[in-house]
Amino acid sequence: MNTPVPLHAPKLLGVVLCGGASKRMGRDKAALTTRQGQTFLDHACRRLQTHCQTVCVSSSPERDIDVQRIPDPPDSHGPISGIHASLSFAMEHGFDACVFTPVDTPSLTSTDLQTLIDAFANHRDQVVCAVSQQTPDHPEPLIAIYPVTLFDVIDRSIDEEQYSPRRLLRSLSIITIPLSAESCRNINTPSDLDSHSPQP
Known about the structure:
The protein is α/β, with parallel strands linked by helices. The protein has one domain: Spore Coat Polysaccharide Biosynthesis Protein SpsA, Chain A (Alpha-Beta Complex). It has helices spanning 40-49, 79-92, 110-122, 151-159, 165-170, 190-196, and strands spanning 12-17, 54-59, 69-71, 97-102, 127-132, 139-147, 174-179. Strands 3-2-1-4-6-5-7 form a seven-stranded mixed β-sheet. Strand 1, helix 1 (40-49) and strand 2 (54-59) form a beta-alpha-beta unit. Helix 2 packs antiparallel against helix 4. The protein starts with 11 loop residues before the first strand and ends with a helix.
């Protein structure tokens, strides 16, 4: 028996957040390589392509990439500006929501993303975000699905100079999805990378 396909499945835009300066790493994190030899950026894009027809990269205009870019504004205030610009792009192109992942979470899996997407299908007016099983009280605002209906809320937050995505989530009704600590782990420093990569 075939499983019925939802008549109105949400149209999702995949967005890799890639706007950081990688100061703690000391080199571009997007160009780091996974255990399979892919760059972090290629890996993050391909992971989203499994679930989203269109995948973009949110980054500064100076970054040299082959994927469609959603440029950070000149007065960028960090990740919240990338989220804001991506939701604007999504609205203009008929998407219902953006699936966000950071470029520096190589252990996040396609299965993890599907779990978030399944939850969003039943809660389309809310942010669905990951939470590490080790820190269940700290939602991961950059591993999340934001409906385009939140554009005005984020626009207002930026106007009020409130730039913290985590603080923003505290003011919203959200759905949290527990994922493993490894899935939520950011590779921020050379020591993080050494512990992630296999030993020769």
